[in-house]
Amino acid sequence: MIRRRTALSVSAATVLAAAPLLTGCGSAPHPGAAAVVGKERITVSQLQSQVADVREAQRSSPEGEQLLAGSAQLGQDTLVRLIQYRIIEQAGRDNGVDVTRRELQERRGQVERVLGGADAVEARFLAAGIAPGQIDRELSVGLVRSKLEDKLGKARTGEVLMKTSDALRVDVNPRYGTWDAKRGTARAALEPWLRPAAAAGPEQPA
Fold it and tell me: What is the pTM of this model?
């Protein structure tokens, strides 16, 4: 499993960078859905809305041209992230782990101190394909993951996430590929279940 590099260590950017194709074990498509996670549908329109928010923020950025050119797989990357959110949140609920608003605010402040302010945080997350309005959920999921590791240990957490993914029977529209519950990512990665929140990019400034 991933080693913790800092107290803030998370890795959405790593997942996003490694996710042009979904691989593994999905099944039949669902009309209007990009994916189904348990009983919850991630609709194509919801996915498109998330992507549109990122694109709008990218176009408004001074580095807009570079950001747009570097995120050709944004739709698939975003879908993988949304699936992972639901799996990790469900694992948290199953194991008595949640995140309070205060904890989220404290984490946001911590990240801002590390990176040098709110604008720097938004820029770093945007480079990972996450719009400003999507940052809080990204951080919240990261906190759930961290709490699971504190409670269960890293190895056990990985097992729990895989079992949760299996139990939810993630089903991805063939337009986007199929889901691999063992890896929990969009393609083969060096290690399974890379951390989903706040990115080695966002929380580990050079």
Answer: 0.77
